[in-house]
Amino acid sequence: MGKSEIQSLFRSIPVLLTIALALITMIAAFSGNFDPANSRYMPVLGLALPALLLCNLLIAICWAFARRRWIFVPLAALIFNYSYILAIFQYSFTRQIPEGHYSSNYADGYLKIATYNVGNFGGEITGYSCKEIANYMKEQKVDVLCFQECGDNKYFPMDSIRKVFSHWRYAIIPTEDSIRGVLPIAVFSRYPLINPQFISYAQSANCSMQCDIVLGRDTVRLLNNHLQTTSVSQNRRKWERGLASTSDTRREAEVVQGAITSLHDNFVKRAEQTDSIRQLALASPYPVVACGDFNSLPSSYTYTELSDILKDGFKTCGRGYMYTYRYFKRLLRIDYVFHSSSIQGYRYYSPNLDLCSDHNPVLMEMKIKK
User: Fold this and answer.
1) 173 pLDDT more than 80
2) Judging by DSSP bridges, how do beta strands 218-226 and 288-293 pair with one another?
3) Architecture of the domain delimited by 92-232+257-368
């Protein structure tokens, strides 16, 4: 092989890598349309989509500096995933958002809901994070609080948690018998809560809760959810140790396959849980708000199925960049507030609270259309 052929080969490698990455990213755009029970690898590809999009953006920048036409290949991959991008970035910075509405009753028609995976309040014996969260939610004039992993401990029991959130006089907290072996969830509200229903899932420590919020002559059906985790954070170090401890290609393949199997099993569980939530939302006689920690990206089957029947609050009234998981370079949006089309969204945001959790809370102000 001559010198010119070698130079040509090296020049073609970046182009081939650019095209290959763009094609994979375009395929990943369809990952949410595949039920994990019928597809082993597409959900995993969807999980990798934030990293794929970031790589395409960096490559586009490189081609721009090189002033080469290949810039259009990664740009095409980004445009192909416009639906995902709009689920994490809303560019309408000129949108008019009214100031918060708050009163001692529902006469003005506005309702403000917050959802927050509180991570068992950090297991703190003094309840510091719990008290800080309550103070923050009071300042934000939140009407309804939906918590996931709302656990207590012997030093700061549920009675103490209930006292901290006494500003919200109505509460649904599952009994110890109903949540044994399950990550606890709870709802606190300034308005009456009726028709509570605790929803457990087979072979899962996760759960959901349904109840109705009575707002004068209006009623809203609330679905508070904590869906099956991906277990990436819990298993990452184990997978890394498995890969670092061997140079055997077969063993490395076994570790990778084991990771994919673990992810796939959790994808399937989460899809089944999503189908249950979807049916509950479709059966509701009232406008629906479905919120919580869904452990799912906007590229997922869960997001696709729920956004098919409900609106994503961030898309209806959010702005700027949206993430809710504090780690993984803040690339992951996995907590949501979905709502019926009969509900008008006015404000949606996720403040960066460095307290007890690896999640940020999500807050949304809304009003039932008349």
Assistant:
1) yes
2) parallel
3) 4-Layer Sandwich (3.60)
DSSP string across 335-357:
EEEEE-TTEEEEEEE-----SS-
Q: Which residue in 137, 136, 140, 143 sits closest to 104, CA to CA? A: 143
Q: How far apart are CA 7 and CA 319, in angstroms?
A: 47
Average pLDDT over residues 220-224: 98
Domain boundaries, the chain: 3-87, 92-232+257-368
| Mean residue pLDDT across the chain | 88
Element (H, E) at 288: strand 288-293
Crossing angle of helices 49-66 and 72-80, in 10° steps, is: 150
Residues 339, 71 contacting (CB under 8 angstroms)? no
Query: For residue 310, what are its two tokens?
Result: 């409900």
Read off the pLDDT of each residue in 302-329 and give the average, rounded to a whole number: 96
Question: Which one-letter DSSP state was computed for residue 98?
Answer: P
Token pair for residue 3?
């010198």
The CA–CA distances, whole Å, from 139 to 99, 102, 167, 203 equal 13, 11, 12, 39
What is the sign of the dihedral through the CA atoms of 166, 169, 172 and 176? positive
d(CA 81, CA 49): 9
DSSP track, 248-287:
-HHHHHHHHHHHHHHHHHHHHHHHHHHHHHHHHHHH-SS-
Q: Which amino acid is at 168?
A: W
